[in-house]
Queue: 3 jobs
Job 1
Amino acid sequence: MSVINWGKPKIEVAPVASDGTIGEYKEWPTPVEDTTQLTTELGDELLATEEGGEAVDRRRKKGSATLELALFVKKGENKPIEDEDGIVPGNHAVRLTPEDPECEGRVIEKSTVTVTETWNSAEGSRLLYSFAALKPKTGAMVKPYLASVPTPPVATPASVTIAQTGETQNVTFDKAIASLTPTAAAPWLTVAGSGTAWTLTAADNSTGSALTATLTATATDGSVATVTVTQPAA
């Protein structure tokens, strides 16, 4: 896991209604490498001066923020959002999740979106999107955002001993499992099942020593857990 919020970002965009309500976020394609950039700028400084130029007071206008990224134009893929001559109608929210979703990302809850296109012989066409932050319904224009990280699946039991050849042990999970596979070759072990119910069957152990396998359980939501399986020496 990362310490800082760098790396390949996940970009999600949602429409914003006239009353500030944010619609459903949809994930965008992965941006071109090193093109995703959030920039904030201080507002103009206002200075009150007396005759002779001495400063009496100063203040700043509100700052601005822009999130920019580029997408490759790929065969058979539509634009992630429709525009009219480079202007995307309405307002949109955009949120950025870093490569490690446990690190803090950023969200702009209201923005205007523009897009321009470039082409060169080295990389073909790119769509350059710019999200210019506007004052949202509440709070700051750019807010911290932490993605919801799914909890790992829980196996019952998490450690299994199969004492006899042909013996079957059942393992159940608290959520649906997409795959349950050994982390290294384990030809003596057969794994079968789907969803939350799986069975483990051992073949003959003629090695004269105990056998151990670690199974990786990958849930349908992407979370991961492990199950340890042991067969004692015959």
Job 2
Amino acid sequence: MPSIETLRPEKDACINGPVDRIWHTMATNPSKKSKSLDTRQKLLDAGLFLFGANGISGVSTRQLADCAGVNLSGILYHFGGKEQLYEAVAQQIADTTGAQIAATAAAIAPTLKELTREQAAMSAGSLLGRIARVILATPDAASRAGFILREQMQPSPAFDIIYHGYIERVHMLLAELVARALDRDANSEMVILQTHALLGQAMIFGMAKATILLRLGEHEFSESRVNRTVSAIEQITVKALSS
């Protein structure tokens, strides 16, 4: 049975620079191998790591530079300041998360109006399953979750970047599937609320990861655990929209 201590992140994770750890974790992904570890990307990675943990007000430019292993002047040169770096991190989250979900969404959208109620429920399950997989299997998922949760609770201009970057499109597509499965108007209050509830069930696995791991008696989301969780979310979604 895991303890809370085993689920906590490394206390001094930035001492050797999070960028090296992040890229070591991503090294098994061929799409990441050719990506240049330039100063700008190192700052984005360090920003995601630190902002995700402490928010913009809890991070200094010196901490960002030290964590990235670059000169302090690099922040001004590449971004103009800490606030601009924060918004650039938000854009990176929107771009990369959106790209990971795009293939599933693109396969559903063209056939949306032809789907039966049963097919719409299954497609909704597939879309939520894909979102859950991105949340659970992305190496920097904890940092993304921290960043997004803070923006949801206390929105800044960065929230608009994330919302319009991918959340809005995913929310609207899922609403169309929910509406078709339930034979209702996609713009009705009930469909929008049910869509949000369904989306929340996928996102909670990232936001409350420690709780579910303790309840399951596990230390981490292994590949098999991710697969089982995604399958459960898909089944729960289909059942919710088929009743």
Job 3
Amino acid sequence: MVLVQARAGAPSNAERIRSVVAASGSLSLTTGSRAYDLVALHTVDDLGVLRLHAPADSVLALESACAPAGELTALVEFTDLAPVRVRDRVRSRVTLAGRLGPSGTRTEQGVLVLRLETVRASIARGGVVEHVGPAELARATVDLLAFDEAGMLAHLDEDHPELVAELGRLVDPGCLRGAVALRPLALDRHGITLRCEYAGGHQDVRIAFPAPLRSAEDIRRQMDRLLARAARAGRDGGRGEAADGPPVGRAGGGAPVGADGEERN
């Protein structure tokens, strides 16, 4: 894999973690004595507090009831997968560590709600692990597109490959040299990430929107602005570095960039 530097807006690590946790449909839980794979059994509140909704007759509920003070040492892991067919679909892995105990939240009969008191959180992207404190995590917000991203990317990839190719005009030509495919990999309120696939590897390039989205409905307007830049780049034979957007692709300076081609925060 080749690392690409790009000066482009991107979510903070805390925002990434909040978005992955909120949008994920499953998780892996490891306690002091057992491991669980839980599907559609968690919720997250506005402060990012994770709650597990375990059947009252489940092994997890029994383990919690037998734990000292009703609390379990817990490691909760989420895997963020690209919703399109690419060579390596794992975009990031999120880990929350803390204490899991009864929430006290009233819920439907036959369900035990367990609340995770997060002590530390981390996100692994491109072989780099970044840590985020609980206070920073609580202040962060879920990305505006977190719940719609998968459907939007799948639609773009399957139904509008010509638009993806057009966006490729905004990528440094050196990144596209030898590429056999260009696919949409990630989407958030700050921009879109494209994956350049080669016969022997891949690299990801970030393209920032001219301005961060103010609502999910703003995505069409910002995409239209990117496509207009791409059209100008095609006419000019350049890289699309129009006045209403930052350079993308192999740009100098900026923060260190990971294997997904996005700036580290």
